[in-house]
Known about the structure:
Strand order of the largest sheet: 1-8-3-6
Number of helices: 15
Order of helices and strands: HHHHHHHHEEEEEEHEEHHHHHEEEH
Radius of gyration: 39 Å
Helix content: 40-55%
Mean pLDDT: 71
Low-confidence stretches: 12-20, 269-274, 344-352, 355-376, 378-397
Oligomer: single chain
Structural class: alpha+beta
CATH class of the largest domain: Mainly Beta
CATH superfamily of the largest domain: Jelly Rolls
Distance between the termini: 118 Å
Strand content: 5-15%
Largest sheet: 4 strands, antiparallel
Number of domains: 2
Amino acid sequence: PPPTLLPLIPPTSHNSPPSLNFGPGVYLYACLWILCAISGTAVPTPSTTIEVGFTLFIVASGFLVLAYVIGTITTAIGQMTAASNQDRTKRDYIDQFLIRKRIPKELRRQVGQFYEFAGFDESEEKLAELPISLRLQLDLVLNRDLFLKVPFFNHVDTSFLIVMVPRIYREYMWWGKLVQSEGVHSTGLHMLARGFAKVTINGAMSTVLTTNDFFGDQSLLEEAPSPATVTTITQCCFMVLDCEDFDELLELYPQIRRTLIKYSAARHRSSDARYQCSLEDGYTQLHKVKLEIQRTQHTWPSDGRQRLAREVGAFESAIRQRYLEQRRSSEPGYATLLHGIPNFIAARRSSNPSITPRSTHPSAHPSKTFFKVTPRASPRSTTPSSTTPSSTTPSST
Length: 397
């Protein structure tokens, strides 16, 4: 044999029949055979019938194991890419159809982005063939986030939910779409299944909505206009329940109407607390939005990511401004401190209207950088003398 194979060949004593007692050296050499046969590198040449049979068994086992592993991996990769390849084929077909119809390139790009976001889901047609009882159970599981997230669904019976579920439908909206206008009655309850939307009140940023956030519940429970404007930031998918369908359900279940009216009165006794959220709720919502962006940022086009970053930055600035206003209102102001000290001489604060220039006096310094605070009248005072400060001399001033 070649010199490179000499170290792999066992001594002659191991090939003789008297030495077939399978000692430690034979087991070590068998392990070497296994590794060489599976890896395919420098398999030693067998010299006896037993060695030939053992080598054939190891080589055959290696081929079977290798074929099984490669086949399993190939099947898994094919199953993962089958759906994407099918969607890609459909998108190419639609794009070629639009090209033949001479559709503008920008419009073709938007159509492609929509199908990339929404996909070619044919599960609705396939699930429609299921029995009614099984389909209702499946709908309850698929829409469980809606029932867990929307508070007033916790106050209704299961029978009401079973009748309501088939009336909920899916609606896709393009970015920049006005979903709800301030002061206008909403068309129904909207729960955001995918995407991002912004909420503005009087033109100012209030909050940003993301997955499982909802709005429009006031229109379902009471005839009240919407307290805020909702506009989509990216492509969005909503689960919608129309007001007309909900009213028909309440006619069938009048006891549910009374329960929801009590809930609505308790919740909306003041302004909508969900839109006029507290500072802590604002930071919580901002953290939720950022986590959702990190999870789904690879699914948005570059222009969508830019719009999303711009709106989230505006939301963060609004929260910061709200924090500064809350801090300013909670701390004692400059004028509040000075009003407690009559005739107090203080440095000029041109932005404070409560500070007036002091009276001129011959001995007073001519500089106008000092001002005297006008004391406020005390509501408990009974005589004018108690509210008017006594005249001061230059020495007392």
